[in-house]
Write a structure and sequence with these properties.
The complex is a heterodimer of chains A (316) and B (322).
Chain A lengths: L1 H29 L4 H5 L5 H10 L6 H13 L5 E2 L4 E2 H36 L4 H14 L3 H15 L14 H6 L1 H31 L2 H8 L4 H23 L1 H15 L4 H10 L3 H29 L7
Antiparallel strand pairs in A: 1-2
Helix pairs in contact in A: 1-14, 5-9, 5-11, 6-9, 7-9, 7-12, 9-11, 9-12, 10-11, 11-14, 12-13, 13-14
Chain B lengths: L2 H16 L25 H10 L2 H18 L1 H4 L31 H37 L1 H15 L3 H9 L6 H9 L4 H14 L3 H8 L4 H12 L1 H25 L10 H4 L3 H7 L6 H25 L7
Helix pairs in contact in B: 1-2, 2-15, 3-5, 3-15, 5-6, 5-8, 5-9, 5-11, 5-12, 6-9, 9-12, 10-11, 12-15
The chains are: A mainly alpha (316), B mainly alpha (322).
């Protein structure tokens, strides 16, 4: 087991270096140097040349990449010229709020999706199952911001229960937690999107488990239906769905990005968006890398969880 | 599911096995089984269509999709509206007799704009998925057929690319390339071929050990001929199912791009661009600028997803219905 984890970690490191190379090449192609943010678009050719030389943007790409890697190892993500701060400081400031938004939405969606999938599987092909499947499928086919817009229209503008966006008073992670009304709409939107993805898998996982012999045995020995579902089915069916969470990191991040932009919630996604519209080189590359690292870690965690929880899975 | 319908695909499978010629090129199922009973007179594709047609929801989705395509591409012939010159005197008018769905902030007729935006959205979906499927199929077929070190290297490369979140890459590239249908299609397509390449490789791995491929190789067929003549046509069912999902995903990504502000050059537009200021419209109460286009987009994506699911069931004859 430990040998397997070490081997997987080593491959993960190689993948991350590969991702860094590709991201770096791509960003270099899109925005070769952050010089225009610093000097403005009307800077003279001479000034640009001098600035590039001073900050090392005139060196060959491969050297720049190696020095970027070197900085990465020392946890130095470079300087965000648009924000006049080091990227690591910006990330440290915003990561908590993003994690809070994603974390609560994720927990909430699992609390809804796991029982929902089980109920759908037990009462399969009933009108309720069809209705839930239809809603899920529609949510799944919806751009994330569009669901947010509909909820803003309904709950914020028509009914006036919640504010339509996060106000400027939310400045720290703590204030995000102490203003639940402000964060209700973003969290609910994100949670609903996740429910759509997870409950589909939960339903089919529960269907697979329902056909197993141990369920029949549990019923045959006289266990109440409630006991069968709670003690046997829920645990076994949840496993594959929870590992799915690890595999769906990219879509979770994308949802987070869109929701933060829509509700003007100051997190990593909004930071990336501001970096993107200003072509702030180091913010863009750091966020892309962060996304890739989270994806790799998510896959790794999913594999290890399934291996640890299910002794039948052999580690290759 | 009626029994006879389950038997037929099975026989179709066996027949395929019996028909191993050097170059099976479709439309050859005229062989009569030993029992003398003529069960199968149609090709695998026709069987797949019959299976698909037995799914009522899938038929409705297909019909809806045809309607939307007609609305976008044929509609402008019957419903004339000015979509090139903005009209400052008729900005954001609510729906009326003159403008059935009102006008947008530039004074363009919204119904006509829906058609125009739908054309580019559907075109982008089609082109992006085409780019992805062509690259993915070739890449996967080569990796699967050649095997060995090359296969390992090629597929590790796919793994690396897959761990970069799609939307982030697309957004980064869109800062440089957006504005025309071709640009956006390429940006979306160039990072969507990863999943198809994996699917095709998996299919090729099982196909290359089948007798008809080995027979072709024994007869001296070149690697190129084996790939284009035998492997890709036989892996086609996987790719066709995947195309529908790719189109759905591309249109969704297009909406996100438009919302963030990377879209087509004005006055051209797509459904994504039309949703770019959706938040302002909602707060201003201009519902006619948000819900028709958003609803249409969701319907189209939903249709493609339903069709994809049904096609997967229809094509994969080994899959047992629950």
């Amino acid at each position: 087991m430990i040998g397997y984890i070490i081997r997987r970690l080593l491959t993960a490191v190689i993948v991350v270096i590969g991702v860094a190379a590709i991201t770096f090449a791509m960003l270099h192609y899109v925005a070769p140097s952050p010089v225009y943010i610093v000097l403005g678009t009307k800077a003279t050719h001479r000034a640009i040349e001098v600035w590039n030389r001073q900050h090392g943007y005139d060196r060959p790409e491969i050297i720049q990449f190696l020095s970027y890697l070197n900085n990465l190892i020392h946890l130095n993500f470079g300087y965000a010229y648009k924000f006049s701060q080091p990227v690591s400081a910006l990330f440290r400031e915003n990561a908590g709020r993003s994690a809070y938004l994603s974390g609560t939405a994720l927990v909430l969606s699992l609390i809804i999706a796991l029982p929902l999938g089980i109920v759908q599987a037990v009462k399969r092909n009933s009108p309720g199952d069809y209705a839930a499947t239809a809603v899920n499928f529609t949510l799944y086919s919806m751009p994330s911001f569009f669901l947010g817009l509909i909820l803003i229209q309904l709950l914020a503008l028509d009914l006036g229960w919640f504010p339509p966006g996060v106000s400027d008073t939310v400045t720290s992670t703590l204030s995000a937690i102490t203003h639940p009304r402000q964060l209700f709409l973003p969290i609910i939107t994100l949670a609903l999107l996740n429910v759509a993805a997870f409950s589909r898998y939960m339903r089919s996982a529960a269907l697979d488990e329902l056909a197993q012999d141990y369920i029949r045995l549990a019923r045959a020995k006289g266990l109440s239906e409630r006991g069968v579902l709670m003690r046997h089915l829920l645990r076994n069916a949840s496993l594959s769905t929870i590992t799915l969470v690890g595999l769906s990191v990219p879509s979770l991040l994308a949802g987070n990005l869109l929701i933060e932009i829509l509700f003007n919630y100051p997190g990593l996604g909004l930071l990336f968006y501001n970096g993107l519209t200003n072509l702030d080189y180091n913010v863009m590359i750091a966020y892309t890398l962060l996304g890739a690292i989270l994806t790799v870690l998510g896959n790794l965690l999913a594999d290890i969880t399934i291996a640890a929880a299910d002794p039948r899975v052999r580690l290759g | 599911m009626a029994d006879s319908q389950q038997i037929e695909p099975l026989i179709g499978e066996q027949m395929e096995g019996a028909m191993l010629g050097p170059a099976p090129s479709g439309g050859l199922h005229q062989l009569v089984p030993d029992g003398g009973e003529v069960y199968v007179t149609s090709s695998g594709w026709r069987l797949a269509w019959r299976e698909y047609a037995s799914n009522r929801l899938a038929l409705i989705a297909l019909a809806l999709l045809v309607l939307v395509v007609l609305f976008c591409f044929v509609g402008p012939i019957f419903y004339h509206s000015n979509q090139t010159l903005s009209n400052p005197l008729a900005q954001t008018e609510p729906p009326s007799g003159a403008h059935l769905l009102g006008t947008d902030q530039n004074g363009f007729d919204e119904l006509g704009r829906l058609m125009l935006g739908g054309q580019s959205a559907l075109e982008i979906g089609a082109y992006a998925s085409l780019v992805a499927i062509v690259i993915g199929t070739l890449y996967g077929a080569i990796a699967g057929l050649v095997g060995g070190v090359l296969d390992a290297v090629l597929m590790r490369f796919v793994d690396v690319l897959l761990s970069i979140p799609f939307l982030i890459v697309v957004l980064v590239l869109a800062t440089k390339y957006s504005g025309t249908v071709l640009d956006i299609s390429l940006v979306l397509g160039i990072f969507s071929w990863l999943v198809p390449s994996r699917l095709v490789r998996g299919e090729v791995l099982t196909l290359r050990t089948r007798d008809f491929v080995i027979a072709a190789q024994t007869m001296g067929a070149t690697r190129r001929r084996v790939i284009f003549r035998h492997l890709i046509p036989n892996a086609m069912s996987v790719t066709i199912v995947n195309i529908t999902f790719l189109i759905a995903d591309s249109i969704l990504a297009l909406a996100l791009l438009g919302f963030i502000g990377f879209g087509l050059q004005f006055p051209n537009t797509s459904w994504g661009d039309m949703l770019g200021n959706a938040q302002t419209y909602v707060t201003n109460g201009q519902w006619w600028l948000v819900y028709p286009v958003g609803g249409l987009l969701v319907v189209v994506v939903l249709c493609f997803n339903i069709i994809g699911d049904a096609l997967r069931d229809a094509v994969d004859v080994r899959l047992q219905r629950r």
